[in-house]
# Entry
Amino acid sequence: MLDDRKLAVLRAIVEDYVSTNEPVGSKALAERHNLKVSPATVRNDMAALEEEGYITQPHTSAGRVPTDKGYRLFVDRLSQVKPLSAAERRAIETFLVGAVDLDDVVTRTVRLLAQLTRQVAVVQYPTLTRSTVRHVELVPLSDRRVMLVLITNTGRVEQRVIELPEAVEDTRIAHMRAVLNACLDGCGLSTVPELVADLPERLPLEDRPVVATILSVLLETLVERHDEKIVFAGAANLAGADFSVGLRDVLEALEEQVVLMRLLGETSTDTPSALTVRIGSENPYLRGTSVVATGYGSGDNQLARLGVLGPTRMDYPVTMGAVRAVARYVSQILAAS
Amino acid sequence: MLDDRKLAVLRAIVEDYVSTNEPVGSKALAERHNLKVSPATVRNDMAALEEEGYITQPHTSAGRVPTDKGYRLFVDRLSQVKPLSAAERRAIETFLVGAVDLDDVVTRTVRLLAQLTRQVAVVQYPTLTRSTVRHVELVPLSDRRVMLVLITNTGRVEQRVIELPEAVEDTRIAHMRAVLNACLDGCGLSTVPELVADLPERLPLEDRPVVATILSVLLETLVERHDEKIVFAGAANLAGADFSVGLRDVLEALEEQVVLMRLLGETSTDTPSALTVRIGSENPYLRGTSVVATGYGSGDNQLARLGVLGPTRMDYPVTMGAVRAVARYVSQILAAS
DNA sequence: CTTGGCACTCGGGAACACAGAGTGCTAGAC
DNA sequence: GTCTAGCACTCTGTGTTCCCGAGTGCCAAG
# Structure
């Protein structure tokens, strides 16, 4: 049904349309790519491609434009992920090296990705659920208040101020801290609830109300941050592009954590580092935009996802290359720290 | 030069133009506001106002539009800050109550302000410089790494991983922690450098290299965060509005911390809670936009600034009311926690 | 000083024509 | 059978013209 030449025509249409943003006609196409056939032949192929739903024309007697289905075929079979140039690789390294903490890593990453792709970049903070406890700290603020600080192996720090039911001396706090750390150090966050379940019973009676208060806040912290924070950058890149959906809708979606989360999608469990590409209407949450995303994190332990969001008419090979490269680099950085 | 009626005309022009977004003519103006004079009289006044530079006409034979100077006069002398409705006040309270930590307070505040004003809201994190040290924590991660956690009275937490020059036992770390806290607890952040200056000399010789490493990181932390983090929300509200400057420029400015910082401006030292209004070209960093900002923080201790950014054509009384109200509420919240 | 009248100006929309790009179709060439 | 060339057709986008109306500035009268 679709012979090699027709596929070549489709590829040429996608490439031309992406670079020019104008419907591409048979004549220009036959000229620019040396297809060695006449425009008339190209027209016949185009008619076939349109019949199959890979391209469409905005109006009668205008050039052709790829459909979502056309982009899909292009991404799946007609293109290769384009690796970054040496200069770009160097830029990534110099940009990411020197990040002082997790916040900084994420901020730098999202900006880097936005700049590299000239799209909107989205980065999810490493999730707590797969992290482990590195340390639990109780800091006395006054005799009835302590600050709980939870430090994970990803460098993430969560803190909460806790109002205690009674005045507690610093030495007792120190003891509780030791007990907590003995119990939790190095354990996965998801196992924390069961690990602390019987903790009050193993303590002197007098400590139980205080510990119970602390534990309830600790558990709450884990639950609240279960779906993780997401940041974006490069909104300015939306200014030029045009979406079938309104610019306003896109901006609103970007500020909605929940929508962003869904846009990034799930990491496939078998091949976590695979690139996910959702094109236009394939994306149920924000149609008219495409998302290129992937998981990142050290080694097999995929922590979170990052990606970019842009118009359906985007340079997929380049974008995919950038997303993949950035994901790898930031994974390295995280593993090292 | 400008009698009362001319001022009334200017006020009417600003109000009409803000609500309709169309140049306002003499006839409609004489009708809608009961000025009790004829359109011809209004025209004479308009001519005078234009002569003085308060209004201008986009083209010959179009209505008049306020200039930056006109808005300035309106804000300074012709309008009163509009207090929020009871419903809005309740909305603020329910929205801000329940914030779990400083991050949460800031995030909620910026969203609230964006929603309330239908503009872009900008909130600066409370600055460290005027804060005081509540606690310094050293958490051993391994025998050659510790995490430094700095907690301030504003609830802010800074953390850094420190590579030690030699292996150090936990008990020694604990001792250093005690020394640090004894030295710094409750002190202003700006005084930290001098307070720790002679600290190594007061310690046993063997501890000095380690302490020096820790202190250098501590000082670095203070310096790096000297100019503070800024967040924004409500970019979607830009979609409708039109600026004389391009939408792209505004979005770029929003992602540049430095530019944002300048936009928010300095808190005047004598009246820190005063509203700052910068209109159009008065704003050197992003012309064509207006900024309404104010300081916030508990009591006399102004911590940081917040405000909104929007088109010059904005409803100043309402916006100013919202900014002032939110600043007060968030100050309360911060003081209470 | 205010008002009504009046001529003038200019922007924006409607109607219209036209050039150009692109198409589909058909008949002929390889 | 597949490709090619030619041709008539169909659009969109642009430029032109025209006209309406809102709004103005000015002037003379109240």
